[in-house]
Amino acid sequence: MPTITTARRRLRLIIPTALAALAITATTAAAHPARTSAAAHAVTTHNHKGLTMNEKNATNTKTTKTTKAMLDAWIQVWNGDFSQAPGIISPDFRVHAALLDGGDGSSIRGVDGLVAWIGQTRAAFPDLHFSAQVEPLIDGHYASVRWTATGTYAGGFPGAKAEPGTAVTFTGTDTLRIRDGKFVEYWLNSDTLELLKQLKAF
């Protein structure tokens, strides 16, 4: 009888210990596949071009930096550095804008058209200076930049009654479409009314 009692006591100790060990093993086994599966999924997740998420993020960062550099060059072109234009303007470049002569900008094409248009603008404001107001917005093949322009009126603006030497400030937003590493399309939205008021053109 003492032997049976001792055996039962041992069984009482062994069974809970064995059950605890089984529970720990089961929990660990269940947890590890989940971690392994999640890790494998993270490593093997690809976008539609076959890039991993890390590669996609790196590509997006590089594209954003390239686009920002193009926008910097774009502003330099408007500030009179026309040597920047061939590197960022497509031969197919076209403009969408309400021009002061009543045109819609469709006659402005390519590098030469853009440079000629900017040159006409700068003839009336030789020291015209553009600067970005905020960080540009970049979304895939499109980029937008909000700018401020300041300069001094030199005369010759149609209908203007302001004296030469009048300081002007106006704002606008440029939206550009990129194709094959160059700007191919441009939408201009500027505060022309504010400029005309300062020039006393109405």
Give the arrangement of secondary structure elements:
Blueprint: H1 2-44, H2 53-78, H3 85-88, E1 89-96, H4 110-124, E2 129-132, E3 137-139, E4 142-152, E5 167-179, E6 182-190, H5 192-198
Parallel strand pairs: 1-6
Antiparallel strand pairs: 2-4, 3-4, 4-5, 5-6
Tell me briefly what this model is.
With 202 residues, the chain is of the alpha+beta class.
- State the secondary-structure class: alpha+beta
Helix proportion = 40-55%
Using only C-alpha atoms, the radius of gyration works out to 34 Å
Order of helices and strands: HHHEHEEEEEH
Could you give a short account of the major beta sheet? Answer: 6 strands, mixed
Number of helices: 5
Shape: elongated
Beta-strand percentage range = 15-25%
Number of strands: 6
Average pLDDT across residues? 81
For the termini, the CA-CA separation is 119 Å
Uncertain ranges? 6-48
